[in-house]
């Protein structure tokens, strides 16, 4: 080989000083977006779960690939064997077929309404269930939304594969899809056959809350966190097919046009949860300033459906990392090793044929190189007339490329997390010059003692404080060693930053199925006892 693979992959290796520099630059970029009129749009959530809410709520989660519906029982302080504060019942999931994502919105929401009706009908089929007129419901989306009230949501422009108009009223669309299943659609249903009545004589939905899935993830852990002393949730993080975060921010740090609807309804509100949509191009400049994006990243960007729309997501999102690995593999095998295009496996040649799931389950597994090459010969086989075949060396090359791409992705997620926590004044990054970049000093003195995300339900007593990042998503939960890599890099960045006030540390805490559970939690919060997002004063 004229070039060693280790050297070939050098562009994917980002040192800790560069990552620290990236955190500093991203922090400033996020602050500017918060101050702008059209980014870092606040949700209508100014109050967080107390952990004491109780009741049963219907939760609907519209993900990128799956629709999930379940009843969420909030148990509060009740102790029920096998359940910690939350119990899920009658849960169902359906794959969202490609034609539904790309057809007219009415078809998608009619299908969603039918699926919801299945779960509601299952509940009412229980003889012990009382007949009810309406069901309090929470709905979460993997899509970016904006809202003036908790029970309304308008779709924002998205690059997530749904052919939906960007001004779509999501609440009304969902109610329209479910409406034909309600009592009011048929009036007296005494003469309706029992089987038909089961699906077409259902109670109405009372939409209590509509949220983004990262906000639901945040709320899911916030509901459970009272059992953990000196711990509070400061961020919701999803790394799956896409990537996004939710953080609490002070309304005073946001552009007045974004806070007006909130203050009109809640004049005493001081803070709100922000779904950042941090992968959009508006926050991407630091990646190019520091030379982090490689030629392969630019190639992927240029040939995707929305070039330049989400540069960060193209480097870390599960929808794209498989394709990025494919691009690098093809370049290595064909460009560096001289293997003819026609001899390579189709999945290394055709765009978006190599999935991140395949990398996670097969390539990143603990199989030896020999066994991996045997497996690849079956699942990633070359054309029948090819004179090339997988060997332990080529299998190792694929594994090294996938590892380089995902290791960088994990480090970029960590860097962005630390940068965002600096922006919200939860941690403090040393403003010293880094890599020739002189960062303007930010005062974290008194401001840092007024953390906007402290929860009334988790008062901080003495001792070090743990800042919890609630995470969910297929990549960070299931890709081998991914979460550990993110945590390790966060630790290194905070070590580089120096001691934090109050002995703060940042830990990733799993909020499995947070997009669904948190939706039920916030439906309960909006409908019952709620606790205001309060400031916890800490010593400096």
Topology overview:
Blueprint: H1 5-8, H2 16-35, E1 47-48, E2 54-62, E3 66-75, E4 86-95, H3 98-102, H4 105-124, E5 134-141, E6 145-146, E7 154-155, H5 170-179, H6 194-200, E8 204-212, H7 213-224, E9 231-239, E10 243-250, H8 256-265, E11 271-275, H9 285-289, H10 295-303, H11 311-316, H12 318-336, H13 346-349, H14 356-363, H15 369-379, H16 392-423, H17 445-448, E12 450-451, E13 466-472, H18 474-478, H19 482-497, E14 505-510, H20 514-527, E15 531-532, E16 536-537
Parallel strand pairs: 2-5, 5-8, 9-13, 13-14
Antiparallel strand pairs: 1-15, 2-3, 3-4, 6-7, 9-10, 10-11, 12-16
Sheet of most strands: 5 strands, mixed
CATH topology of the domain at 47-213: Nucleotidyltransferase, domain 5
The percent range for helix content is 40-55%
Per CATH, which architecture of the domain at 47-213? 2-Layer Sandwich
How much of the sequence is in beta strands? 15-25%
Number of strands: 16
Describe the structure.
There is one protein chain. The chain is α/β, with parallel strands linked by helices and 540 residues long. It has a domain at 47-213: Nucleotidyltransferase, domain 5, CATH 3.30.420.40. The chain is built from 20 helices and 16 strands. A 5-stranded mixed sheet has the order 4-3-2-5-8, with helices on both faces. Strand 2 and strand 3 (66-75) form a beta hairpin. The radius of gyration is 24 Å and the shape is globular. Residues 5-223 form the Hexokinase N-terminal domain. Residues 235-523 form the Hexokinase C-terminal domain. GO terms for molecular function: ATP binding; D-glucose binding; fructokinase activity; glucokinase activity; mannokinase activity.
């Amino acid at each position: 080989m004229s070039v060693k693979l280790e050297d070939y992959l050098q562009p994917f290796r980002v040192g800790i000083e560069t990552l620290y520099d990236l955190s500093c630059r991203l922090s400033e970029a996020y602050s500017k977006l918060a101050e702008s009129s059209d980014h870092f749009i606040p949700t209508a959530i100014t109050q967080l779960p107390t952990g004491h809410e109780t009741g049963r709520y219907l939760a609907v989660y519209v993900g990128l690939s799956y629709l999930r519906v379940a009843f969420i029982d909030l148990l509060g302080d009740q102790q029920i064997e096998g359940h910690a504060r939350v119990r899920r019942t009658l849960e169902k999931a359906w794959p969202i077929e490609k034609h539904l994502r790309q057809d007219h919105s009415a078809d998608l929401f009619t299908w969603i309404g039918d699926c919801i009706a299945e779960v509601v009908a299952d509940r009412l089929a229980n003889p012990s269930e009382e007949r009810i007129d309406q069901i309090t419901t929470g709905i979460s989306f993997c899509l970016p939304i904006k809202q003036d009230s908790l029970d309304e949501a308008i779709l924002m422009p998205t690059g997530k594969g749904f052919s939906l108009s960007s001004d779509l009223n999501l609440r009304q669309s969902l109610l329209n899809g479910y409406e034909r299943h309600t009592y009011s659609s048929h009036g007296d249903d005494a003469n309706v056959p029992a089987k038909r009545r089961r699906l077409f004589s259902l109670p109405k939905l009372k939409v209590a809350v509509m949220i983004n899935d990262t906000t639901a993830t945040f709320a899911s852990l916030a509901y459970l966190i009272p059992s953990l002393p000196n711990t509070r949730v400061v961020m919701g993080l999803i790394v799956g097919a896409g990537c996004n975060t939710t953080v609490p921010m002070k309304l005073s740090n946001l552009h007045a046009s974004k806070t007006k609807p909130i203050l009109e309804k809640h004049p005493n509100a001081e803070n709100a949860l922000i779904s950042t949509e941090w992968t959009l191009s508006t926050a991407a400049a630091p990646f190019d300033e520091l030379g982090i994006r490689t030629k392969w990243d630019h190639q992927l960007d240029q040939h995707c459906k929305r070039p330049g729309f989400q540069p960060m997501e193209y480097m870390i999102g599960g929808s794209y990392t498989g394709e990025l690995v494919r691009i690098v593999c093809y370049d290595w095998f064909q460009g560096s090793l001289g293997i003819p295009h026609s001899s390579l496996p189709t999945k290394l040649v055709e765009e978006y044929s190599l999935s991140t799931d395949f990398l996670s389950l097969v390539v990143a597994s603990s199989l030896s190189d020999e066994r991996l090459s045997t497996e690849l010969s079956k699942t990633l086989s070359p054309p029948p007339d090819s004179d090339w075949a997988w060997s332990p060396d080529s299998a190792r090359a694929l594994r090294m490329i996938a590892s380089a791409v995902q290791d960088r992705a994990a480090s970029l997620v960590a860097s962005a997390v630390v940068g965002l926590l600096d922006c919200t004044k939860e941690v403090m990054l040393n403003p010293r010059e880094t890599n020739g970049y002189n960062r303007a000093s930010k005062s974290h003195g008194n401001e840092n003692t007024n953390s906007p995300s402290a929860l009334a339900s988790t008062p901080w007593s003495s001792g070090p404080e743990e800042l919890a990042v609630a995470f969910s998503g297929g990549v960070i939960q299931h890709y081998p060693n991914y979460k550990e890599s993110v945590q390790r890099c966060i630790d290194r960045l905070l070590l580089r930053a120096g001691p934090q006030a109050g002995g703060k540390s940042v830990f990733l805490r799993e909020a499995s199925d947070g997009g669904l559970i948190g939706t039920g939690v916030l439906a309960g919060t909006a409908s019952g006892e709620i606790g205001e997002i309060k400031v916890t004063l800490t010593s400096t």
